[in-house]
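Practice problem 4.
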């Protein structure tokens, strides 16, 4: 009995130090033989106690034996692991320096049968990737291994192996190939194609992407996504870190040429079909918040259109160098659901309009409004990469906005950015503050009025002249009260002959200059009307050269000749039973001389024909959060469409000639001033008729 107990103690000690199984089995056989000897010599009564102890010892060996179990899918029996008649040998996994490759979390060497693990090449939030050599053929592969803290999560492990199963079903040149997956005790792994290159994230951070190269890369990614969706799979984690560019895959830059298979889409760790569309993991939403679709952020059921949205956000970042949404997790989720980012052209004017519109369609909040991937590829393949600034607009919305970049902007009549000029800063060609007013001359030059008084800088001028390309070509109007000087240049406009008119809201005078800024004359002044003003706000020059002034304090619009002679005025009474006049908070004059006046008291815009008759009435409803004490800026295009913007807001409303609202245009920055520039067409020469 004593001998048996000693033997069992030895077995227990060997278990603690993880002795080889053959040694444990030999000792167990020896103790059982001793027990049988006691049974034969001493009888059953003497052998009962040792047999019970031996049974307990046998129970201790069972877990150790189970731990030694290896899945045949991962490590087949030795007799099956033969390559060309030779037994496949397992080699020690080491780094380049000779140190073992350690699995994060458990400080044990990473040892996968059939592979020589060379080095760790990357790590994500849930798994690490190692470069390894497959011993059967010497091929370099990537081993993906879950982080130690996730190994005990049964849902994660099921998803990990599902990723491999999903990826093994896909065969596309732009998708990272997965060869096999398995487990070795608690260690799970996936064997994939090794991509020797950089992630798209690295290219974006280094600023190495041109517009053309971005579009070329997107074509390959969109084609890979089409293949995935055709297999009934949703990727659900499209982001720059999951798009790889092979080393040497970019063959040319002008135009960019990508080698076949240069772009690789990877990481299907959360991919799934309808079954997994609502799945969450470790209490968090599945996916990367910055690239998450609105429906994904809400935790709703998703489909392939969610991948299109995420791809659009990746393309947005490639074109602009910055993500569409910024902030903490919850802030980004809120933006994904409720906010629309500024179009890429607002941040990078080199982006062609076709790509700008494509991105905004791809990131539409409503999945039904997003284009198909086939349509995406078609636009990418046919986009025009010519100089977007080279074309001229016959009609343009001219804006000044509160923004650090592009404080003066020209938009086409549909709201697409055409030209972005001037930044805020201290440089010689920068504005120190956003211009309060801007106007376009018939020849395409722009005049911007920006109030700034610089102590000790007598040379500073508050009116800046820019050429059609946005280059500063002149300035005039220093601070002061002499002719040609201003206290506060509140509004500016240009007549059909190129004469520049500037309204000074402090002196209540209008000053007139030639196209180069030479002072010509001044008129107006403080008064109760008929050529004098009380709190004048805006000035407009009609198509015939006559001058219109919003006399805000006197609640009227005055019309004067080009040299300041009073002609007439417009005002609205409150009512037959109420004394006083209605508030006028904005006006404009169309090309045919029709006057559009905003009645701020009633929230209506009324048109007045050149003959003095009332025309169409437009209802201007106040938007939520929109200030009602700010002026309205108005403009009319050749088709008679009325454009209305509230200063301080970021919406331009377009009204049809019959008064109905056509659409709204988002400016994405607070409006300081809005106007409409219409390029004047020179009349064709008249030929004399022969008799």
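Answer key:
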């Amino acid at each position: 009995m004593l001998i048996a107990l000693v033997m069992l103690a030895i077995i227990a000690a060997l278990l603690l130090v993880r002795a080889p199984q053959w040694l444990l089995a030999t000792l167990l056989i020896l103790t059982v033989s001793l027990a049988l000897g006691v049974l034969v010599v001493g009888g059953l009564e003497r052998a009962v106690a040792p047999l019970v102890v031996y049974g307990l010892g046998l129970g201790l060996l069972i877990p150790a034996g189970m731990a030694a179990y290896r899945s045949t899918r991962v490590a087949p029996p030795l007799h099956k692991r033969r390559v060309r008649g030779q037994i496949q040998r397992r080699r020690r996994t080491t780094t380049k320096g000779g140190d073992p490759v350690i699995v994060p979390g458990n400080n044990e060497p990473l040892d996968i049968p059939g592979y020589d693990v060379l080095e760790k090449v990357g790590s994500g939030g849930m798994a690490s990737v190692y470069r390894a050599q497959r011993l059967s053929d010497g091929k370099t592969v990537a081993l993906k291994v879950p982080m130690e803290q996730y190994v005990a999560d049964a849902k994660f492990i099921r998803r990990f192996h599902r990723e491999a199963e999903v990826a093994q079903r896909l065969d596309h040149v732009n998708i990272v190939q997965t060869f096999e997956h398995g487990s070795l005790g608690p260690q799970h792994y996936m064997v994939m194609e090794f991509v020797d290159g950089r992630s798209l994230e690295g290219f974006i951070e280094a600023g190495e992407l041109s517009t053309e190269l971005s579009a070329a890369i997107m074509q390959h990614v969109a084609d890979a996504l089409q293949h995935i969706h055709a297999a009934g799979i949703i990727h659900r984690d499209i982001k720059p870190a999951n798009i790889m560019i092979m080393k040497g895959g970019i063959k040319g830059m002008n135009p960019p040429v990508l080698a076949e298979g240069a772009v690789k889409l990877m990481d299907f760790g959360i991919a799934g079909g309808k079954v997994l569309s609502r799945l969450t993991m470790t209490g968090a939403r599945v996916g990367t918040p910055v690239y998450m679709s609105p429906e994904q952020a809400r935790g709703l059921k998703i489909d392939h259109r969610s991948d299109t949205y995420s791809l659009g956000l990746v393309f947005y970042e490639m074109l602009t160098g910055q993500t569409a949404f910024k902030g903490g997790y919850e802030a980004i989720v809120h933006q994904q659901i409720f906010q629309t980012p500024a179009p890429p052209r607002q941040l990078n004017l080199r982006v062609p309009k076709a790509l700008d519109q494509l991105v905004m369609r791809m990131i539409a909040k409503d999945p039904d409004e997003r284009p198909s991937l086939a349509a995406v590829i078609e636009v990418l393949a046919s986009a025009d990469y010519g100089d977007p600034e080279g074309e001229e607009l016959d009609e343009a919305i001219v804006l000044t906005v509160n923004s650090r970049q592009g404080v003066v902007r020209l938009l086409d009549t549909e709201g697409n950015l055409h030209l972005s000029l001037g930044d805020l800063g201290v440089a010689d060609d920068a504005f120190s503050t956003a211009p309060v007013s801007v106007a376009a001359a018939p020849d395409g030059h722009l005049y911007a009025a920006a109030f700034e008084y610089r102590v000790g800088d007598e040379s500073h001028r508050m009116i800046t002249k820019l050429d059609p390309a946005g280059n500063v070509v002149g300035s005039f109007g220093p601070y002061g009260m002499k002719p040609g000087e201003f206290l506060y240049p509140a509004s500016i406009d240009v007549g059909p002959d190129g004469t520049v008119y500037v309204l000074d809201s402090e002196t209540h005078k209008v000053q007139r200059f030639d196209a180069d800024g030479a002072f010509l004359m001044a008129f107006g002044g403080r008064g109760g009307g008929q050529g004098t003003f009380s709190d004048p706000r805006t000035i407009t020059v009609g198509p015939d050269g006559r001058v219109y002034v919003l006399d805000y304090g006197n609640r009227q619009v005055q019309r004067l000749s080009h040299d300041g002679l009073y002609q007439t005025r417009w005002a609205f009474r409150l009512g037959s039973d109420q004394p006083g006049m209605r508030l006028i908070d904005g006006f404009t004059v169309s090309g045919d001389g029709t006057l559009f006046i905003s009645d701020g008291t009633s929230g209506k815009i009324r048109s007045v024909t050149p003959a003095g008759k009332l025309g169409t009435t437009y209802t201007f409803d106040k938007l939520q959060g929109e200030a009602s004490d700010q002026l309205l800026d108005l403009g009319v295009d050749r088709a008679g469409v009325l454009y209305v913007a509230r200063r301080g807001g970021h919406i331009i409303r377009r009204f049809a000639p019959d008064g109905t609202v056509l659409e709204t245009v988002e400016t994405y920055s607070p409006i300081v001033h809005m106007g409409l520039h219409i390029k004047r067409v020179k009349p064709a020469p008249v030929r004399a008729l022969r008799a």
